[in-house]
Amino acid sequence: MSHMLLMSFDDSHIMNLNRTLNRFLEYAFSLIEKATIQFCYIGTASNDSLIERKFFTRFVSSKFRKKVITSELVLTKSQLTKEQLESYLAQQDILFIGGGNTEKMLEIWEKSGFTSVLNKLKTEKRLPVLAGVSAGGMYPFYSVLSDVMPGQYKALLGLGWLKESFCPHANSKKKSLCDYSKNQYLERMEAYVIAVKQGLLPSGYAVPNDCMLHFENFNLVKTISSLQNNQCYYVTHEKVFALETIYAAVSSNPNIRLECWSRGFKYLHHFKQWAKKLHLWTKRTI
């Protein structure tokens, strides 16, 4: 049985991210009945950012302790053969795919042979649990709405495992250029609805931050939110349908305090801000 957990969250809202990642990871781990779980983080979309890779693997190690063995798959510099990739992926129980640049991620996956191996494992029904956020949740769909070009929406093709389209961060108030709608600057949800109505994207899922779609054998079985009063939608060219969205209110482990991880998230946020400033300063001095 295959499972895909396709998420949307915003790492600029530290406490929401803290709560969401805790609950969604607990949900993912609950799907696997093993004493020790192999967890692999794949950060291709963020150009294999060292900060994000180390943060995620250390977060998971600290949270689940002896129950998990973590690793990272760095595909931007990978020299692994397809056979080596297949052997490695087949040993994993969970692949967590981080967010970032969807278009660049798919290019690197294709070049490295990762796409080919992933498709092979799918065909042979040997996929691990696939979890991912934003770009890391887009790839299974036929097509997606992305703002890979800064400040401009763009329709991208995914791997086509699912016939629908996907729009993460559907409740984002940030506006970007929508050249297929008279060059207006629109919020993401509005841009997605227009793209579906115009036929640029097939019908699909609009997922706000702090929500997750659970596909079992490539069929949607649950829509989950870590926040109350949060809602996912299914968008067609005729109508927008609200999906029943379950509130993940209770930790599966009563001994885990969700707030105990907030300091780590604050450190991640500060590191990201520092890295951005350093990048801008470097560009100015070159």
Automatic annotation (TrEMBL):
Tell me if Ubl conjugation is a UniProt keyword of this record: no
Entry keyword annotation includes Protease: yes
Q: Name one GO molecular function term.
A: serine-type peptidase activity
Which domain of life does this protein belong to?
Answer: Bacteria
**Keyword annotations of the record:** Hydrolase, Protease, Serine protease
Q: Could you provide one GO biological process annotation from this protein's UniProt record?
A: proteolysis
Alphabetical list of InterPro entries matching this protein: Class_I_gatase-like (IPR029062), Peptidase_S51 (IPR005320)
Q: Which SUPFAM superfamilies match?
A: Class I glutamine amidotransferase-like
The record's listing under Gene3D superfamilies reads:
3.40.50.880
Q: Which one Pfam family would you cite for this protein?
A: Peptidase_S51
* Protein family according to the UniProt entry: Belongs to the peptidase S51 family.
Q: What PANTHER family would the database entry show? A: ALPHA-ASPARTYL DIPEPTIDASE, PROTEASE S51 ALPHA-ASPARTYL DIPEPTIDASE
Q: Please report the name of this protein according to its UniProt entry.
A: Peptidase family S51
